[in-house]
Amino acid sequence: MNLKAKIAAFCLFFLLFSQSASAAFDFGNIISDRDMQDSQSISVATIDRFLNSRNGILGKLVFDAVNGVGTISKKVSELIHAAGQANKINPKVLIVTLQKEQSLIEDPSPSQGQLDWAMGYAVCDDCSKSDPAIQKYKGFVNQINSAAARLRYYFDNPGQFRHQAGQTHTIDGVSVVMKNKATANLYNYTPHIHGNQNFSKFWNQWFVKNYPDGTLLQVDGQAGIWLIENGKRRPFLNKSAFLSNYDSDKVIKTTTTDLEKYSIGAPIKYSNYSLIKMPSGGIYLLIDNVKHPIASRDVFRNLGFNPEELIDGDEDDVKWYPKGSPITLEKAYPQGALLRDPETKGVWYVENGIKSPIWSKDIMMSRFSGRPVMQSSIEELELYEKGAPVKFRDGEIIATKDPESLNRSVYVVSNGQKRPIANREAFNALGYKWKNIIWTTDKVLDLHETGEMIDIIQ
Question: For the chain, how are helix, strand and coil distributed in percent, rounded to 5?
Protein backbone atom coordinates (compact mmCIF):
# COMPACT_ATOMS: atom_id res chain seq x y z
CA MET A 1 0.00 0.00 0.00
CA ASN A 2 1.48 3.39 -1.02
CA LEU A 3 1.67 6.37 1.30
CA LYS A 4 -1.37 8.12 -0.20
CA ALA A 5 -3.48 4.99 0.24
CA LYS A 6 -2.27 4.55 3.82
CA ILE A 7 -3.22 8.12 4.68
CA ALA A 8 -6.64 7.66 3.09
CA ALA A 9 -7.20 4.41 4.98
CA PHE A 10 -6.17 6.03 8.26
CA CYS A 11 -8.50 8.99 7.69
CA LEU A 12 -11.39 6.65 6.92
CA PHE A 13 -10.62 4.56 10.01
CA PHE A 14 -10.55 7.70 12.15
CA LEU A 15 -13.84 8.88 10.66
CA LEU A 16 -15.56 5.55 11.25
CA PHE A 17 -14.18 5.26 14.78
CA SER A 18 -15.32 8.74 15.74
CA GLN A 19 -18.77 8.13 14.29
CA SER A 20 -19.09 4.80 16.06
CA ALA A 21 -18.15 6.42 19.33
CA SER A 22 -20.53 9.36 19.02
CA ALA A 23 -23.40 7.57 17.26
CA ALA A 24 -24.39 11.04 16.04
CA PHE A 25 -24.28 10.44 12.28
CA ASP A 26 -26.59 8.07 10.44
CA PHE A 27 -24.88 7.56 7.06
CA GLY A 28 -28.12 6.67 5.27
CA ASN A 29 -30.58 9.01 7.02
CA ILE A 30 -29.03 12.46 7.28
CA ILE A 31 -32.24 14.47 7.01
CA SER A 32 -35.87 13.60 6.31
CA ASP A 33 -37.70 14.37 3.08
CA ARG A 34 -40.10 16.54 5.03
CA ASP A 35 -37.32 18.58 6.61
CA MET A 36 -35.55 19.20 3.31
CA GLN A 37 -38.74 20.42 1.64
CA ASP A 38 -40.15 22.47 4.54
CA SER A 39 -39.80 25.83 2.82
CA GLN A 40 -41.99 27.52 5.48
CA SER A 41 -39.75 26.48 8.38
CA ILE A 42 -38.15 29.87 9.01
CA SER A 43 -38.89 33.53 8.34
CA VAL A 44 -36.66 36.20 6.81
CA ALA A 45 -36.44 37.93 10.19
CA THR A 46 -35.34 34.73 11.94
CA ILE A 47 -32.73 34.00 9.26
CA ASP A 48 -31.42 37.54 9.68
CA ARG A 49 -31.24 37.19 13.45
CA PHE A 50 -29.46 33.86 13.13
CA LEU A 51 -26.85 35.21 10.68
CA ASN A 52 -26.15 38.17 12.94
CA SER A 53 -25.84 35.94 16.01
CA ARG A 54 -22.92 34.01 14.49
CA ASN A 55 -19.37 35.24 13.90
CA GLY A 56 -19.75 35.47 10.13
CA ILE A 57 -20.15 38.50 7.91
CA LEU A 58 -23.25 37.42 5.98
CA GLY A 59 -25.66 39.31 8.21
CA LYS A 60 -24.00 42.57 7.15
CA LEU A 61 -23.85 41.99 3.38
CA VAL A 62 -26.24 42.91 0.57
CA PHE A 63 -26.11 41.68 -3.03
CA ASP A 64 -27.71 42.81 -6.26
CA ALA A 65 -30.40 40.40 -7.38
CA VAL A 66 -32.54 40.45 -10.51
CA ASN A 67 -36.30 40.58 -10.10
CA GLY A 68 -39.15 41.13 -12.53
CA VAL A 69 -38.47 44.83 -13.01
CA GLY A 70 -34.69 45.04 -12.79
CA THR A 71 -31.98 44.77 -10.18
CA ILE A 72 -32.54 45.26 -6.47
CA SER A 73 -30.22 45.06 -3.46
CA LYS A 74 -31.17 42.30 -1.04
CA LYS A 75 -29.87 41.12 2.28
CA VAL A 76 -28.53 37.58 2.49
CA SER A 77 -31.49 36.55 4.65
CA GLU A 78 -33.86 37.68 1.90
CA LEU A 79 -31.92 35.82 -0.78
CA ILE A 80 -31.87 32.57 1.19
CA HIS A 81 -35.56 32.79 2.02
CA ALA A 82 -36.57 33.65 -1.56
CA ALA A 83 -34.55 30.75 -3.03
CA GLY A 84 -36.15 28.37 -0.56
CA GLN A 85 -39.66 29.56 -1.38
CA ALA A 86 -39.13 29.49 -5.13
CA ASN A 87 -37.83 25.92 -5.11
CA LYS A 88 -39.77 24.49 -2.14
CA ILE A 89 -36.52 23.77 -0.33
CA ASN A 90 -36.00 24.47 3.37
CA PRO A 91 -33.95 27.68 3.79
CA LYS A 92 -32.25 25.98 6.75
CA VAL A 93 -30.74 23.47 4.31
CA LEU A 94 -29.25 26.37 2.34
CA ILE A 95 -27.86 27.92 5.53
CA VAL A 96 -26.16 24.67 6.53
CA THR A 97 -24.76 24.22 3.02
CA LEU A 98 -23.19 27.71 3.18
CA GLN A 99 -21.34 26.63 6.32
CA LYS A 100 -20.52 23.13 5.10
CA GLU A 101 -19.07 24.34 1.81
CA GLN A 102 -17.31 27.63 2.64
CA SER A 103 -17.70 28.21 6.43
CA LEU A 104 -19.55 31.42 5.56
CA ILE A 105 -21.95 31.40 8.51
CA GLU A 106 -19.07 31.70 10.97
CA ASP A 107 -16.28 33.33 8.92
CA PRO A 108 -15.94 37.06 9.75
CA SER A 109 -13.63 37.81 6.80
CA PRO A 110 -14.19 35.42 3.88
CA SER A 111 -12.31 35.76 0.61
CA GLN A 112 -14.01 36.79 -2.60
CA GLY A 113 -13.56 33.22 -3.79
CA GLN A 114 -15.55 31.91 -0.83
CA LEU A 115 -18.41 34.26 -1.66
CA ASP A 116 -18.25 33.57 -5.40
CA TRP A 117 -18.56 29.80 -4.84
CA ALA A 118 -20.59 30.04 -1.63
CA MET A 119 -22.55 26.80 -2.06
CA GLY A 120 -19.78 24.84 -3.76
CA TYR A 121 -22.20 24.43 -6.64
CA ALA A 122 -20.80 23.26 -10.03
CA VAL A 123 -17.29 22.91 -8.60
CA CYS A 124 -16.27 19.25 -8.60
CA ASP A 125 -13.19 17.81 -6.91
CA ASP A 126 -11.13 17.87 -10.11
CA CYS A 127 -12.63 21.04 -11.60
CA SER A 128 -10.93 24.39 -11.95
CA LYS A 129 -12.90 27.38 -10.76
CA SER A 130 -11.66 29.21 -13.85
CA ASP A 131 -13.31 26.68 -16.18
CA PRO A 132 -15.43 28.74 -18.65
CA ALA A 133 -18.20 26.13 -18.46
CA ILE A 134 -19.05 26.96 -14.85
CA GLN A 135 -18.70 30.74 -14.85
CA LYS A 136 -22.47 31.21 -15.19
CA TYR A 137 -22.79 29.77 -11.65
CA LYS A 138 -20.20 32.12 -10.16
CA GLY A 139 -21.36 34.75 -7.68
CA PHE A 140 -23.14 34.59 -4.36
CA VAL A 141 -26.65 35.09 -5.72
CA ASN A 142 -26.13 32.58 -8.53
CA GLN A 143 -24.80 30.04 -6.07
CA ILE A 144 -27.80 30.31 -3.73
CA ASN A 145 -30.36 30.11 -6.51
CA SER A 146 -28.60 27.35 -8.46
CA ALA A 147 -28.07 25.13 -5.42
CA ALA A 148 -31.69 25.45 -4.31
CA ALA A 149 -32.92 24.70 -7.85
CA ARG A 150 -30.64 21.67 -8.11
CA LEU A 151 -31.89 20.21 -4.81
CA ARG A 152 -35.44 20.62 -6.09
CA TYR A 153 -34.49 18.96 -9.38
CA TYR A 154 -33.03 15.98 -7.50
CA PHE A 155 -36.39 15.49 -5.81
CA ASP A 156 -38.41 15.78 -8.99
CA ASN A 157 -36.13 13.67 -11.21
CA PRO A 158 -34.46 11.06 -8.99
CA GLY A 159 -34.00 8.52 -11.78
CA GLN A 160 -31.49 10.78 -13.54
CA PHE A 161 -28.95 10.62 -10.74
CA ARG A 162 -26.60 8.05 -9.30
CA HIS A 163 -27.78 8.00 -5.69
CA GLN A 164 -31.44 7.09 -5.21
CA ALA A 165 -33.62 6.28 -2.20
CA GLY A 166 -33.71 2.58 -1.41
CA GLN A 167 -30.42 1.83 -3.13
CA THR A 168 -27.10 0.86 -1.56
CA HIS A 169 -23.92 2.62 -2.64
CA THR A 170 -20.30 2.39 -1.55
CA ILE A 171 -19.06 5.86 -0.63
CA ASP A 172 -15.49 6.37 0.58
CA GLY A 173 -15.37 2.66 1.34
CA VAL A 174 -18.60 2.71 3.35
CA SER A 175 -21.71 0.81 2.25
CA VAL A 176 -24.58 3.29 2.58
CA VAL A 177 -28.26 2.45 2.23
CA MET A 178 -30.09 5.58 1.04
CA LYS A 179 -33.12 5.60 3.32
CA ASN A 180 -34.90 8.56 1.74
CA LYS A 181 -34.74 10.99 -1.17
CA ALA A 182 -33.30 13.84 0.88
CA THR A 183 -30.29 11.81 1.95
CA ALA A 184 -29.74 10.59 -1.61
CA ASN A 185 -29.93 14.25 -2.75
CA LEU A 186 -27.19 15.25 -0.32
CA TYR A 187 -24.90 12.52 -1.64
CA ASN A 188 -25.67 13.53 -5.21
CA TYR A 189 -24.72 17.09 -4.27
CA THR A 190 -21.63 16.04 -2.26
CA PRO A 191 -20.59 12.43 -2.99
CA HIS A 192 -18.40 12.06 0.11
CA ILE A 193 -18.92 10.90 3.69
CA HIS A 194 -17.00 13.73 5.32
CA GLY A 195 -18.94 16.52 3.63
CA ASN A 196 -22.26 15.00 4.60
CA GLN A 197 -21.01 14.36 8.11
CA ASN A 198 -20.38 18.10 8.36
CA PHE A 199 -23.86 18.83 7.02
CA SER A 200 -25.31 16.57 9.72
CA LYS A 201 -23.19 18.20 12.42
CA PHE A 202 -24.34 21.74 11.66
CA TRP A 203 -27.95 20.70 11.01
CA ASN A 204 -28.19 18.99 14.38
CA GLN A 205 -26.32 21.74 16.18
CA TRP A 206 -28.49 24.56 14.86
CA PHE A 207 -31.88 23.20 13.90
CA VAL A 208 -32.60 19.98 15.79
CA LYS A 209 -33.84 19.82 19.36
CA ASN A 210 -30.93 18.25 21.19
CA TYR A 211 -32.06 17.99 24.77
CA PRO A 212 -29.31 17.97 27.41
CA ASP A 213 -28.83 15.04 29.76
CA GLY A 214 -31.27 15.14 32.65
CA THR A 215 -34.22 16.25 30.49
CA LEU A 216 -37.56 14.53 31.08
CA LEU A 217 -39.60 14.06 27.90
CA GLN A 218 -43.13 12.95 27.15
CA VAL A 219 -44.91 12.83 23.82
CA ASP A 220 -48.05 14.93 24.11
CA GLY A 221 -51.03 12.58 24.50
CA GLN A 222 -48.95 9.55 25.49
CA ALA A 223 -48.44 8.13 28.99
CA GLY A 224 -44.76 7.19 28.89
CA ILE A 225 -42.04 9.43 30.36
CA TRP A 226 -38.40 9.24 29.29
CA LEU A 227 -35.12 10.45 30.81
CA ILE A 228 -32.47 11.69 28.38
CA GLU A 229 -29.10 10.38 29.54
CA ASN A 230 -25.86 9.85 27.61
CA GLY A 231 -27.66 10.64 24.36
CA LYS A 232 -30.32 7.95 24.87
CA ARG A 233 -33.91 7.90 26.13
CA ARG A 234 -34.49 5.77 29.19
CA PRO A 235 -38.09 4.74 29.87
CA PHE A 236 -39.61 4.73 33.34
CA LEU A 237 -41.35 1.39 33.69
CA ASN A 238 -43.69 2.45 36.48
CA LYS A 239 -44.99 5.54 38.21
CA SER A 240 -43.17 4.97 41.50
CA ALA A 241 -39.80 4.78 39.74
CA PHE A 242 -40.49 8.21 38.29
CA LEU A 243 -42.05 9.95 41.29
CA SER A 244 -39.35 8.79 43.71
CA ASN A 245 -36.76 10.69 41.70
CA TYR A 246 -38.46 13.47 39.76
CA ASP A 247 -41.09 16.20 39.72
CA SER A 248 -43.83 15.73 37.13
CA ASP A 249 -43.95 19.50 36.60
CA LYS A 250 -40.45 19.31 35.07
CA VAL A 251 -41.57 17.04 32.21
CA ILE A 252 -41.27 18.61 28.75
CA LYS A 253 -43.84 17.84 26.08
CA THR A 254 -42.30 16.86 22.76
CA THR A 255 -43.18 15.22 19.45
CA THR A 256 -42.75 11.61 18.39
CA THR A 257 -40.20 12.74 15.80
CA ASP A 258 -38.05 14.58 18.33
CA LEU A 259 -38.24 11.71 20.83
CA GLU A 260 -37.53 8.89 18.43
CA LYS A 261 -34.28 10.37 17.19
CA TYR A 262 -32.85 9.03 20.47
CA SER A 263 -32.18 5.31 20.67
CA ILE A 264 -33.77 3.52 23.63
CA GLY A 265 -31.52 3.14 26.65
CA ALA A 266 -31.73 1.08 29.82
CA PRO A 267 -35.15 1.13 31.51
CA ILE A 268 -35.63 2.70 34.93
CA LYS A 269 -37.53 0.06 36.83
CA TYR A 270 -37.00 0.72 40.52
CA SER A 271 -37.74 3.56 42.92
CA ASN A 272 -34.93 5.46 44.56
CA TYR A 273 -33.61 3.64 47.66
CA SER A 274 -34.99 0.29 46.50
CA LEU A 275 -33.38 -2.81 48.03
CA ILE A 276 -32.84 -5.41 45.29
CA LYS A 277 -32.17 -9.02 46.30
CA MET A 278 -30.14 -11.06 43.81
CA PRO A 279 -30.56 -14.83 43.28
CA SER A 280 -27.06 -15.23 44.72
CA GLY A 281 -28.26 -13.71 48.00
CA GLY A 282 -26.49 -10.38 47.52
CA ILE A 283 -28.39 -7.14 48.07
CA TYR A 284 -28.08 -3.81 46.30
CA LEU A 285 -29.31 -0.46 47.55
CA LEU A 286 -30.16 1.88 44.67
CA ILE A 287 -29.24 5.50 45.34
CA ASP A 288 -29.78 8.04 42.55
CA ASN A 289 -29.54 5.31 39.89
CA VAL A 290 -26.32 3.83 41.31
CA LYS A 291 -26.32 0.34 42.83
CA HIS A 292 -24.42 -0.02 46.09
CA PRO A 293 -23.76 -3.58 47.32
CA ILE A 294 -24.55 -4.10 51.00
CA ALA A 295 -21.45 -5.71 52.45
CA SER A 296 -23.20 -8.48 54.41
CA ARG A 297 -26.46 -9.63 56.01
CA ASP A 298 -25.16 -8.35 59.34
CA VAL A 299 -24.73 -4.87 57.85
CA PHE A 300 -28.25 -5.12 56.43
CA ARG A 301 -29.72 -5.93 59.84
CA ASN A 302 -27.59 -3.49 61.86
CA LEU A 303 -28.52 -0.60 59.59
CA GLY A 304 -32.17 -1.27 60.36
CA PHE A 305 -33.35 -2.43 56.97
CA ASN A 306 -36.52 -4.52 56.92
CA PRO A 307 -36.47 -7.84 55.00
CA GLU A 308 -40.00 -7.04 53.84
CA GLU A 309 -38.55 -4.15 51.83
CA LEU A 310 -36.54 -6.51 49.62
CA ILE A 311 -37.48 -6.77 45.95
CA ASP A 312 -36.51 -9.90 44.06
CA GLY A 313 -34.40 -9.11 41.02
CA ASP A 314 -31.70 -10.57 38.80
CA GLU A 315 -28.57 -9.40 37.02
CA ASP A 316 -30.52 -8.36 33.94
CA ASP A 317 -32.57 -5.98 36.10
CA VAL A 318 -29.58 -4.20 37.61
CA LYS A 319 -26.85 -4.53 34.98
CA TRP A 320 -27.72 -1.08 33.64
CA TYR A 321 -26.95 0.64 36.94
CA PRO A 322 -23.34 1.67 37.57
CA LYS A 323 -21.81 0.05 40.65
CA GLY A 324 -21.03 2.29 43.59
CA SER A 325 -19.02 1.78 46.76
CA PRO A 326 -20.07 -1.00 49.17
CA ILE A 327 -22.22 -0.09 52.14
CA THR A 328 -20.58 -1.03 55.43
CA LEU A 329 -21.21 -0.30 59.10
CA GLU A 330 -18.36 2.20 59.02
CA LYS A 331 -20.11 4.29 56.37
CA ALA A 332 -23.02 5.97 58.08
CA TYR A 333 -26.27 7.09 56.47
CA PRO A 334 -26.29 4.88 53.37
CA GLN A 335 -29.57 6.47 52.25
CA GLY A 336 -28.33 9.98 52.97
CA ALA A 337 -29.23 12.44 55.72
CA LEU A 338 -29.28 16.20 56.24
CA LEU A 339 -27.30 17.21 59.34
CA ARG A 340 -27.17 20.71 60.80
CA ASP A 341 -23.84 22.03 62.01
CA PRO A 342 -24.37 23.30 65.60
CA GLU A 343 -21.74 26.05 65.18
CA THR A 344 -22.30 27.46 61.67
CA LYS A 345 -25.98 26.44 61.43
CA GLY A 346 -25.14 25.27 57.92
CA VAL A 347 -26.44 21.96 56.57
CA TRP A 348 -24.39 19.01 55.38
CA TYR A 349 -25.59 16.15 53.25
CA VAL A 350 -24.10 12.96 54.66
CA GLU A 351 -24.24 9.80 52.55
CA ASN A 352 -22.30 6.59 53.06
CA GLY A 353 -19.80 8.31 55.35
CA ILE A 354 -19.15 11.39 53.18
CA LYS A 355 -20.31 14.87 54.24
CA SER A 356 -20.95 17.41 51.50
CA PRO A 357 -21.77 21.06 52.27
CA ILE A 358 -24.98 22.58 50.94
CA TRP A 359 -24.23 26.16 50.05
CA SER A 360 -27.74 27.47 49.63
CA LYS A 361 -31.38 26.86 50.48
CA ASP A 362 -32.03 26.80 46.72
CA ILE A 363 -30.00 23.62 46.32
CA MET A 364 -31.46 22.03 49.42
CA MET A 365 -35.03 22.66 48.29
CA SER A 366 -34.24 21.37 44.81
CA ARG A 367 -32.40 18.22 45.85
CA PHE A 368 -33.94 17.32 49.21
CA SER A 369 -37.41 18.86 49.38
CA GLY A 370 -39.46 17.36 52.20
CA ARG A 371 -36.54 15.60 53.90
CA PRO A 372 -35.98 16.50 57.57
CA VAL A 373 -32.85 18.26 58.80
CA MET A 374 -31.43 16.55 61.91
CA GLN A 375 -29.41 18.25 64.61
CA SER A 376 -25.85 16.97 64.79
CA SER A 377 -22.76 17.60 66.87
CA ILE A 378 -19.24 18.74 66.07
CA GLU A 379 -17.94 15.36 67.23
CA GLU A 380 -20.23 13.46 64.86
CA LEU A 381 -19.52 15.68 61.87
CA GLU A 382 -15.77 15.27 62.39
CA LEU A 383 -16.17 11.53 61.86
CA TYR A 384 -17.03 11.96 58.19
CA GLU A 385 -14.76 12.64 55.25
CA LYS A 386 -15.48 15.94 53.53
CA GLY A 387 -16.73 15.81 49.95
CA ALA A 388 -17.39 18.40 47.24
CA PRO A 389 -20.29 20.84 47.67
CA VAL A 390 -23.68 19.59 46.52
CA LYS A 391 -24.67 20.82 43.06
CA PHE A 392 -28.04 21.17 41.40
CA ARG A 393 -29.23 17.97 39.81
CA ASP A 394 -29.23 17.48 36.07
CA GLY A 395 -32.22 18.96 34.29
CA GLU A 396 -32.74 21.94 36.59
CA ILE A 397 -33.01 25.42 35.08
CA ILE A 398 -31.04 27.99 37.04
CA ALA A 399 -30.22 31.71 36.92
CA THR A 400 -28.72 34.27 39.26
CA LYS A 401 -30.84 36.46 41.51
CA ASP A 402 -27.91 38.73 42.42
CA PRO A 403 -29.00 42.24 41.29
CA GLU A 404 -25.41 43.39 40.72
CA SER A 405 -24.41 40.37 38.67
CA LEU A 406 -23.28 40.83 35.09
CA ASN A 407 -24.39 37.27 34.35
CA ARG A 408 -27.87 37.43 32.80
CA SER A 409 -27.93 33.94 31.27
CA VAL A 410 -30.41 31.19 32.05
CA TYR A 411 -28.79 27.76 32.32
CA VAL A 412 -29.75 24.10 32.18
CA VAL A 413 -27.71 21.81 34.42
CA SER A 414 -26.40 18.78 32.54
CA ASN A 415 -23.69 16.37 33.68
CA GLY A 416 -22.95 18.77 36.52
CA GLN A 417 -22.25 21.66 34.14
CA LYS A 418 -24.36 24.74 33.57
CA ARG A 419 -25.19 25.11 29.88
CA PRO A 420 -26.36 28.58 28.85
CA ILE A 421 -29.55 28.80 26.78
CA ALA A 422 -28.83 31.13 23.88
CA ASN A 423 -32.01 33.21 23.97
CA ARG A 424 -35.72 33.33 24.73
CA GLU A 425 -36.58 31.69 21.40
CA ALA A 426 -34.40 28.65 22.15
CA PHE A 427 -35.83 28.42 25.69
CA ASN A 428 -39.39 28.35 24.38
CA ALA A 429 -38.61 26.06 21.43
CA LEU A 430 -37.22 23.40 23.76
CA GLY A 431 -40.37 23.50 25.89
CA TYR A 432 -38.86 24.83 29.10
CA LYS A 433 -41.16 26.63 31.55
CA TRP A 434 -40.23 30.02 32.97
CA LYS A 435 -41.90 29.13 36.27
CA ASN A 436 -39.38 26.30 36.72
CA ILE A 437 -36.34 28.59 36.82
CA ILE A 438 -34.55 28.33 40.17
CA TRP A 439 -33.14 31.71 41.15
CA THR A 440 -29.87 31.36 43.00
CA THR A 441 -26.59 33.25 43.54
CA ASP A 442 -23.45 33.75 41.50
CA LYS A 443 -21.56 31.75 44.11
CA VAL A 444 -23.79 28.73 43.58
CA LEU A 445 -23.73 29.12 39.80
CA ASP A 446 -19.93 29.06 39.94
CA LEU A 447 -20.07 25.59 41.50
CA HIS A 448 -20.99 24.36 38.03
CA GLU A 449 -18.52 24.62 35.17
CA THR A 450 -19.91 26.36 32.10
CA GLY A 451 -20.71 23.94 29.29
CA GLU A 452 -21.65 24.31 25.64
CA MET A 453 -24.38 26.79 24.74
CA ILE A 454 -27.82 25.40 23.89
CA ASP A 455 -29.26 27.03 20.79
CA ILE A 456 -31.98 26.13 18.33
CA ILE A 457 -33.44 28.21 15.53
CA GLN A 458 -37.13 27.68 14.83
Answer: 35, 20, 45
